[in-house]
Design a protein that fits this description.
- The strands form 2 sheets. Strands 3-2-4 form a 3-stranded antiparallel β-sheet, sandwiched between helices. Strands 1-5 form a two-stranded antiparallel ribbon.
- It has a domain at about 65-155: Ribosomal Protein L30, Chain: A (2-Layer Sandwich), CATH 3.30.1390.
- About 60% of the residues lie in helices and about 15% in strands.
- By secondary structure, the protein is of the alpha+beta class.
- The protein has helices at about 1-60, 85-90, 100-110, 125-140; strands at about 65, 70-75, 115-120, 145-150, 150-155.
Length: about 160
Amino acid sequence: MELISFISSIISIIMGVISIYLAVKYNKVADITNEETKKILTDCNDIIKKTAIYSREKNIKNKIFLAKDSIIVYKLQGYDPKNKTKIMSYFNDATYIKEFKKTEIEKWLTSEEETINISLTHALRVNEYETFKREVDGLSEYNIIIKYDIKFSNTY
C-alpha cells in the first residue's frame, strides 16, 4: 500500500512540474501575441481617428482632399519566409502598388523587420477597396496582416 502511495506521489509531482513548465511556455507565447496585438490596435485607433476627422470634415464642407494613402504590412510571430512566393502573388497583382515598391516588399519578406509602410499609387475606390479586403484576408493564413492607412489633408 505504501508503494502505491509513493508512486502516486511521484506521478503527482511530475504532473505538477509539467503543468508549471507548460504554463510558463504558454505565458511567453501569450506575451508575444499581446505585443503584436497592441501594435495593431494602436494603428487601428489612429485610422479610426483619421476616419472620424474625415467624416466631420466631409459633413461640414461636403468635399475632402485625399492625400496619398498607404498600407502597413505586419509580419506576425508565426511568419515563415518560405511562403514568400505565395505572398508576393498577392502584391504582384495589385495595380495600386508601384513596381519598385513590390521589390521592396520582396526584400522585406526575407528581412528581420516586422513592419513596412507602402504608399499607394492612388486612393482606393470602393470596388478596389472591396477587392483589397478580400485579398488581405487571404494573407492572414501566412501570418501577414495588412492595414489600410488613410491620410487626410485640409488643403484643397
